[in-house]
Amino acid sequence: MNSAPPLAAATTLADPDTPFAVVDVHKAQSNIERLAGRADQLGVTLRPHVKTAKSLDVAALLHGDVPCPVTVSTLAEAEAFADGGYTDITYAVGIDAHKLPRVIALLRRGVTLRVLLDSREQATFVAEAAHEAGIAVPAQIEIDCDGHRGGLKADAPELVDIGRILHEAGCLDGVLTHAGESYFAYTPEDQRLAARNERDTAVAAAERLRAAGLLVGTLSVGSTPTAHAAEDLTGVTELRAGNYVFFDLVMAGLGVCRVEDLALSVVVSVIGHRPEYGWIITDGGWMAMSRDRGTSVQAQDQGYGLVLDLAGNPIPGLVMTGASQEHGTLTARDDADLPNLPVGTRLRILPNHACATAAQHRGYHVIDSTQSADPAPAIQANWERITGW
């Protein structure tokens, strides 16, 4: 699937074969504590989306090694986290009928696994499957708050009909919305407005269902930008976010975090130079970083990633501006001098999109930036990602 080597015993970031993914546990823990504190202030349950790291080790940081409510994006994730002791899971991708046997199998294991839907067709086959299995399948109705992806408008005529199908089958759990367009909200005020709209839309949908006599227990909202911008979540029961554990350059470009907060990076090696073009060539292409160019629509285009030295210090003006499958191209911008980096020099690249970059690797070498990085950061642990998704 990728060029990442198996995780092996190593002492420092100077040891493993490149490219490989690195997590700074200190920064990840700080990011986790920041949003957990905000959720407490807002009076809602935080349900982290574990699709970013896909790692039981990372998830263990979320709530002091105690399994907490989580969101997943695949049933393989749900199964792996259930195996790891997580029993309160929301599968936040629209359900398909052929996946329901796996859902029911998890429910029979005692896992509360909620599914997501936005049509009468889905509601009907969920209700029928629940009847045949003799077990309720908790379902949330997806609400479209900003036209980003799937879901029903809060005033959609079919909303109440869908709710009634689920209610009569004992399956109606609540409503869920995701402000995906907040990833293009470039000011703090725009992000606050997105968070307010996300909350107002979920509440409006729930009120319509309740006015029809239907029980709505869960009002779930969230995205990483709106989770950090929300000021009032009255009526909401839970907040979802996932990217915040690692953060990335897109989030930094939105001002949701600082570049210094990014917990994920990829270590690459310099393998060549093209001085006639102003290029430094590395062994980390899009198979190591992903093809994501999310910052290209922001005020500062960060190419495929910003370049740090192995200790984590930014190299001024050096950016990964090109990528083929296994080669990365670094260039200088803003009149910066191209640094003299001999073949074999190890560098760290900060990604545009943490979820996409993490998906290119089978695990993480873990460091702690509060510890000495001389001569190279010590590897504190090796964390595996779950497999089979």
Structure description:
This protein is an alpha/beta fold and 389 residues long. Helices cover 28% and strands 24% of the residues. It is built from eleven helices and 17 strands. It has helices at 25-42, 56-59, 75-83, 100-108, 120-133, 159-168, 188-211, 224-229, 249-254, 286-289, 354-358; strands at residues 20-24, 45-48, 70-72, 88-94, 112-117, 139-143, 172-177, 218-221, 238-241, 264-274, 279-282, 305-309, 314-323, 328-332, 346-350, 363-367, 381-384. Strands 2-9-8-7-6-5-4-3 form an eight-stranded parallel beta sheet. α5 (120-133) runs parallel beside α6 (159-168). The radius of gyration is 22 Å and the shape is elongated.
Main beta sheet strand tally, sense and closure = 8 strands, parallel
Spell out the helices and strands N to C.
EHEHEHEHEHEHEHEHEHEEHEEEEHEE
Portion in beta strands: 15-25%
Strand order of the largest sheet: 2-9-8-7-6-5-4-3
- The number of helical elements comes to 11
- Intertermini distance: 12 Å
Query: Strand pairing plus helix content: what structural class?
Result: alpha/beta
3D shape: elongated
Number of strands: 17
Which regions have little confidence, pLDDT < 50, spanning 5+ residues? 1-5
Q: For the residues shown, what is the average pLDDT? A: 96
| Share of helical residues | 25-40%
Rg on CA atoms, Å = 22 Å
Domain D-serine dehydratase-like: 263-368
Pfam families: Ala_racemase_N, D-ser_dehydrat
Protein name: DSD1 family PLP-dependent enzyme
Family: Belongs to the DSD1 family.
